[in-house]
Design brief:
InterPro entries: DUF1178
Strand order of the largest sheet: 2-1-3
Distance between the termini: 33 Å
Pfam families: DUF1178
Number of helices: 4
Protein name: DUF1178 family protein
Largest sheet: 3 strands, antiparallel
Shape: globular
Helix content: 25-40%
Order of helices and strands: EEHEHEHEH
Organism: Qipengyuania citrea LAMA 915
Radius of gyration: 19 Å
Length: 153
């Protein structure tokens, strides 16, 4: 079984269980996928975090080098790189405004001069992101997951 995070064009996220990746593709092609929240049939795969086991970190080495699977801690250089990335993103988000599900709308307003430019972050479906890129709007995914302010404890 394969579990995909899915989202509809209305921004609802949900899981879909499929016997294979081709099973997902066939169901999508036949229009059998539907959002359980709103019934929307415009459904696609949502960005997913990779499933990483708690132990057994692997490092890819240049061709020809002998490597072993490590069951210990993450190599210090990799850990430092992740920490630096998380800090850099956190610093950038300090001056950015959370706009939630209206990210695509707000980004377009700024791009087309309908509102003042300002750093924003929020949610967009894959289709919305692809459409914005096609329109020449500079967007990028956040590399470290961010909890929306209204969902924090």
């Amino acid at each position: 079984m394969i579990v995909y995070d899915l989202s509809c064009s209305e921004g609802h996220r949900f899981e879909g269980w499929f016997s294979s990746s081709s099973d997902y593709s066939e169901q999508k092609a036949q229009g059998l996928l539907q959002c359980p929240s709103c019934g929307c049939e415009d459904v696609g795969k949502a960005p997913m975090a990779p499933s990483v086991p708690a132990k057994a970190n692997a490092v890819v080495a240049p061709a020809g080098e002998n490597t072993q699977l490590s069951t210990g801690d993450m190599p210090p250089a990799v850990k430092q790189a992740f920490e630096a990335l998380a800090k850099a993103q956190a610093k950038a988000l300090e001056s950015s405004t959370w706009v939630g599900d209206s990210f695509a709308e707000k980004a377009r307003e700024m791009h087309y001069g309908e509102s003042e430019n300002a750093p924003i972050h929020g949610r967009a479906t894959r289709d919305e992101a692809e459409d914005m890129v096609a329109e020449g709007i500079a967007v990028a995914p956040l590399l470290v997951p961010v909890a929306p302010p209204d969902e924090l404890n």
